[in-house]
Amino acid sequence: MVTDRVAAKKKVQLIKNLPTLPGMIDMISRAVDSKRFSAADIGKLISKDQVLTAKVLKLANSAFFGFSRKVGSLTQALVLLGFDVVKGLILTSSVFDLMKDQSGELWRHSMGVATVSNIIASEIGMADVEEVGLAGLLHDLGKVVLRAHMPEDHASISELVEVEEMPVRQAEREVLGFDHTHVGLWLAEAWKLPEQLTEPLRWHHQPEASRKAPLATAVVHFADILARGYGYGDGGDPWVPPLDRAALKALGLDSQKLRNIIDAMCEKLVDQPGSLSI
Question: Which residues form the HDOD domain (predicted)?
Fold first, then answer.
């Protein structure tokens, strides 16, 4: 039976053990959103939680950001990445604990898409490269929610993928009446993430539908396809999604830029650990 979409949206937005920003995370998020605190102020606030500090710095130093030198402090991370990206990393460090426990290969796929998103954004000269990389990391957030909080539905989806050889989005729509991109958007809206992050979550399979962040969405769309084609991690089924040629055209990639992206992807994904413990 198809899950009621309104009820499912409410369920997603009310989930308590995903980061709906309790306690310290809520305080940090409000400080970031207020724009009244300096990077040093927010760095000190995060530093009160040593576990969270370690997780954020580990993500900031991971391969998908690709900084040439180590990010040694939270203040430095805030200056290099910006408040919105650090807020996203805080959320990511919490929600992806679920993914790490349940599906290391989905985490690996997400890290791969983040890395390739960063490579593409850098190659085409985007100003907000780090934010686009974070959008790549979060693009399959909805799948984490489905696995963790709708296990019976997820089992039915997995059965359709395996037995009927159905693409995962088609199976999700068959069981739920919607797919993981809707779930990711609902949670991102509850977190008040910026459009540069929410649009790729919702539209990375249909980049032509993105109106508010079309270029970032096109980057994540293409990065998802490249990471899947490379065989890095597991996005839920063994098939590579169809390429939107309009999105590829929007990226303005000539043959040399495409070669640069492929070469950098092969180099970084080989060097990147199979799963990043956060």
Answer: 18-207
Identify the DSSP state of 240: P
Report if residue 125 sits inside a domain: yes
**Where does residue 170 rank: exposed (0-12), middle (13-18), buried (19+ CB within 10 A)?**
middle
d(CA 31, CA 38): 9
Handedness of CA 260, 276, 11, 90 (dihedral sign): negative
Total count of domains within the chain: 1
117 lies in some domain: yes
Residue 70 placed within a domain: no
Residue indicated by tokens 């085409």:
124
How far CA 217 is from CA of 59, 104, 106, 244, in Å, comes to 22, 24, 20, 11
3-state helix, strand, coil in the chain (%, to 5): 70, 0, 30
CATH code (residue 179): 1.10.3210.10
Round to whole Å and give the CA distance between 243 and 225.
Answer: 7
Print the domain residue range for 118.
Answer: 5-19+84-271
Residue 35 tokens read as: 């724009």
- Which 3 state secondary structure label does DSSP give 149? helix
Could you tell me the pTM of the whole model? 0.81
| DSSP assigned state of 208 | G
The answer as to whether 88 is a domain residue is yes
Q: How many residues does the chain have?
A: 278
